[in-house]
């Protein structure tokens, strides 16, 4: 069964065609077919991302196995699955762990568009404050599917 | 994206309950900045940035 309905697909196709500028690569880390790994949402997440990637030629999906594809696992610093890396012209450290369903799916769409444009959707006063950050910051945001 | 020093991870906590326990997640969204500064619920952008600055001071 598909996650996206025909009307969702049409909506996304039009939105991405109108708003995307540069390509965005989604690196998806999933369980290895030869290892017995407990990852109940890996297959669902993969299917959802495949359906999403099919809505725009500018969205490239690359599927990696964890932990077997060591080079990619190390490069992107992946320590659990399912893991999704959203990458525009460079990796700016955006990760999603788990399945981005419900409201989180809209977050993903906005993330892809922002990365594609190469600039965040934030007001100038917020950007000015963010410019003051001169040492590494990691923000973890915990969510549940809604 | 606005600053190369800042990384962001979203974690679907029902799939990683051990992280929910570790970071005392009793409601969502909950944000944890540099393992120290916590924000419960959704915060206005400018308030969120203040918390980020607080975490690096």
Automatic annotation (TrEMBL), chain A:
UniProt xrefs under SUPFAM superfamilies: Thioredoxin-like
Q: Where is the Thioredoxin-like fold domain?
A: 34-104
Alphabetized InterPro entries for the sequence: Thioredoxin-like_fold, Thioredoxin-like_sf
Q: Could you name the domain of life of the organism this protein comes from? A: Bacteria
Q: Which PANTHER family match?
A: GLUTAREDOXIN-LIKE PROTEIN (PTHR37170:SF1), GLUTAREDOXIN-RELATED (PTHR37170)
Q: What name has this protein been given in UniProt?
A: Thioredoxin-like fold domain-containing protein
- Species annotation: Carboxydothermus islandicus
From TrEMBL, chain B:
Which part of the chain is the Thioredoxin-like fold domain?
2-54
Would you say which domain of life the source belongs to?
A: Bacteria
Q: What SUPFAM superfamilies does the annotation carry?
A: Thioredoxin-like
Q: Which Pfam families match?
A: Thioredoxin_3
Its protein name is Dehydrogenase, selenocysteine-containing
Species per Swiss-Prot/TrEMBL record: Carboxydothermus islandicus
């Amino acid at each position: 069964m598909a996650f996206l309905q025909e009307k969702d697909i049409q909506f996304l196709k039009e939105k991405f065609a109108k708003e995307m500028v540069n390509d965005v690569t989604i690196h998806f880390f999933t369980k290895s077919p030869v290892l017995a790994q407990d990852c109940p949402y890996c297959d669902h997440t993969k299917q959802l991302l495949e359906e999403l990637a099919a809505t725009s030629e500018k969205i490239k999906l690359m599927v990696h196995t964890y932990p077997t594809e060591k080079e990619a696992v190390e490069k992107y610093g992946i320590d659990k699955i399912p893991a999704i890396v959203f990458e525009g012209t460079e990796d700016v450290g955006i990760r999603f762990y788990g399945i981005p369903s419900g409201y989180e799916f809209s977050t993903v769409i906005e993330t892809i568009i922002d990365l594609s444009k190469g600039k965040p959707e934030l007001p100038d006063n917020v950007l000015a404050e963010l410019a003051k950050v001169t040492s590494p910051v990691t923000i973890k945001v915990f969510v549940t599917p809604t | 994206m606005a600053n190369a020093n800042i990384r962001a991870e979203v974690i679907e906590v029902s799939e990683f309950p051990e992280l929910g326990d570790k970071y005392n997640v009793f409601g969502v969204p909950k944000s944890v900045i540099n393992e120290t500064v916590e924000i419960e619920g959704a915060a206005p952008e400018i308030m969120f940035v203040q918390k980020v600055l607080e975490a690096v001071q």
